[in-house]
Fold:
Amino acid sequence: MNTESIKNEAAKKLYNALAEREPIDAISSTYAGLTVEDAYEIQLINVKRYIGEGEIISGRKIGLTSKPMQELLGISEPDYGHLYQSMNKKDGIVFMKDVIAPKAEGEIAFVLKEDLEGPNVTVEDVYRATDYVMASIEIVDSRIQDWKIKLVDTVADNGSSSCYVLSDKKVKLDDLSLIDIEMTVYKNGEKIDSGKGSDVLGNPAVSVAWLANKLFDYGITLKKGELILSGAITAAPKASENDVFEFEFSQLGSVKVTFK
Structure:
């Protein structure tokens, strides 16, 4: 089987796994030798498939922004996935029948007021192009059995993204300090973790700049109005039925998700 056939077959397996909520064996073990570039191409095969089915891209998510996660996977940069409008859980409810093994991540979300095009995007460019930021939750989920993933697996699997919840509060960057934002995680009313904006690559805006420059390699530009989930501030706790997670952000307010 040639490389193109392998990529198409891997993409179809991931597509079916999501559609049927049935996890599959790791892509990295099924198809030995796949590169990260191959994995992004697998991701894009499914992006084109979803767009063809009527999905509308709402933005991008950035993952693997913490040093511990990068060290765990033996990498030196984050990864990314695509977001669709249908992923926006406006009521803050996620049904367990729609996911496989979900986890909840608190993140600072950016919304752009102008395009950001690589390859030389800086943090200053990100500040200038950002309309506002919000508190957000990304629900990550893996179509790979038991989350036994390598970098190739999560990249091919759209950055292990599932859906997201946004707060109602919108804050201009002039009115806050990204690196000093403090976040506290509550699970079923009990505090379980905390972190700061600086835990995302030193500054979440660095994460967004990385994304704009990385996308340039694939001929993609971040567009005005798009949403960017900049990366998890803390580790992602596992979610089970009836769990309620609330992420409280200084300066940004709080955002909540309920699993049913």
Summary: The helical segments are 3-20, 27-30, 36-52, 67-73, 123-129, 151-156, 204-216. Residues 6 and 31 are 7 Å apart (CA to CA). The two ends are 42 Å apart (CA to CA).
